UniProtKB/TrEMBL annotation:
Gene3D superfamilies for the chain: HAD superfamily/HAD-like (3.40.50.1000)
Name of the protein in its database record: Roadblock/LAMTOR2 domain-containing protein
InterPro entries (UniProt xref): HAD_sf
Top-level division of the source organism's lineage: Bacteria
Length: 155
């Protein structure tokens, strides 16, 4: 991924928030949105970064999907952190944010109106429309999540 200094700066800033919610769309952000949807699997690097984030204090990770939670879990490479991962339908994301008391949100491939201080990232041509930040594909999402996990660990 070409380094997007503005995006990296925003991640650096948001990593220090007291209570972080990381919300990633499954289809198109964690798993390629091509071919048979029933065969879609999350990229392993993204899953590993989410495992790290789930294990961190004051950090909630949600996969945003209309799929059933057990189906999402089967399509991801999750370790013992599996129990900490939340799966929400797109319309449930604002309620989850309120429930966990998130002071900031990193939303990747999700359609949500972010608050001031949030980092909303579109993925690809279709999902990038209107998002303040954009990455090209699932490989770039993996890079972004790895960067965020590394930054959040240092907090």
């Amino acid at each position: 991924m070409d380094t997007d200094d503005a995006l990296w700066g925003a991640l650096d800033r948001v990593a220090e928030t007291p209570t972080l919610l990381v919300a990633c769309a499954f289809d198109g952000a964690l798993a390629p949105d091509e071919g048979d949807p029933d065969q879609a699997r999350a990229e392993q690097v993204s899953s590993e970064a989410l495992n790290v984030l789930v294990a961190l204090a004051d950090t909630t990770v949600a996969v945003v999907s209309d799929r059933a939670a057990d189906e999402v879990a089967e399509l991801m490479f999750l370790s013992g952190a599996k129990g900490g991962l939340r799966v929400v339908a797109p319309e449930g994301l604002p309620a989850l944010r309120d429930e966990v008391g998130a002071t900031a949100l990193v939303g990747v491939g999700v359609a949500i109106a972010g608050a001031s201080g949030d980092v909303i990232v579109g993925v690809g041509e279709d999902l990038g429309a209107g998002a303040p930040y954009e990455v090209e594909d699932v490989d770039d999402v993996a890079d972004l999540l790895e960067e965020l996990a590394g930054l959040r660990r240092r907090v």
